[in-house]
Every structure is written in C-alpha cells, then in structure tokens.
Request: fold
Amino acid sequence: MESVDQNGAVLSSQLTVDNVDVEFLPLIYEIIRCVERDPHDTSQKARESQDTSQKILELQRKLDQARNQIRKLPGVEYSKEEQLQKLETLRKQLQLKKDLLLKYRHMCTFDIPKS
Reply:
C-alpha cells in the first residue's frame, strides 16, 4: 500500500533503501551549467541568476527530502556497534536454526502402519 506525501515522495508501509530518492546529479549538473554560462546582457544575467537560485532551492528541498526518508529507515536509530551486535545475534540464531533443521532431517522416521 503506497501513498504520496506533500513533496511527491512515495511512502510505503515499510520504507527500504531502494525507495529513497537520491537522484542529485542531474540537479547538480544543471546548477553547474547555469553558473558556467556568462551572458553579457544584464537582464539575461538577472534571469540566469534567478534560474540558478531556483535550481539550488530545488536541490536543497531534494536533499531535505532524502534526509527525512533516510531517518525513517529501519535500524538507523542504532549506533554502529549496536547494529553489529544485532547482526551477530541474528547470525547465531540463523546458525542454530540451520543446525536444528539438519538434526531433524537426519532423525529416524517412524513408519506408521496404514489401517
């Protein structure tokens, strides 16, 4: 179930890294192109300056949106040490479950007589 917030970002019940919008390069490229242009006409310079300012504000909004999305990712609230400890605990649980499955697989099966 997906919805769209006021910034146009897609929100789902479980946000993942793949859902975070981090496409900044096209905006940065446009800003650089605007800065590199050097019009000789003063009215054109003012318009170019306004366009550049608009693109910079758009980039700032996109960065803020990405920050907010990243803060909502599961596990971000934990420190690196806590994340590593949690990962190690999950690995131990996985190994224990694998061992149990292997043990049950090799257990003797009882033949139940059919009546």
